[in-house]
Amino acid sequence: MFSFSKIYFLVDNLIKFFNSILFLLILIGLTFSLLLSPPDYLQGENVRIMYVHVPSSWISLSCFMLIAFLSIVNFIFKIKNLHLVKICLAPIGLMFTCLSIVTGAIWGQPTWGTWWAWDARLTSMLALMFFYLLLIINYKFFEKDETSQKISSIISILGLVNIPIIKYSVEWWTTLHQPASIKLSGSTIHSSMMVPLLLMLLALLTYSALIFLMKYKTEIIKIKKKNLKRL
Q: What is the pTM of this model?
């Protein structure tokens, strides 16, 4: 089992690595997204919002699914470190959920003629934002004890029900959103747009990893300080 000192050393090295490649990845991603990718034949230049909106949505959903999975594992096996990981993931998930909603509104205005509509996809994403807020409030205002962990697990598992609603809302109901263009069975997006999309996803994932590691490092420092005060 790794001690906090070894984990701290590993995290510190990973922070340096991700920090060294982040700017280059963002630069490459933005170059392909803003300069090299073609405008859409219907949406024109507005389609470029997709290169931030779609990866943000993917990361938002992935963070919550990971939090829910860790909650279930932690609930069964009582692994304390998993609760620490959830604490670090929640702000990242909230940030990308908000970014997804904001960029979606910016994209929706010229496409749909409105900034907001109570569309099934939009409403379920808004619900996801509130689940993230509940998790963060729980972490912020309650002690990180067993009760807090149980509350976060309940919130996470309840919020997990919302994930398939977000994913399949465009298929279950008549919505403003178009059906998914990228599926396991294939993609309807041309490679000239798919490549920039994946590059931006990689850049934002690297940014997410960096923020997660910095937050995790801070939490380790807090734990060390508490242990020193007890001595």
A: 0.89
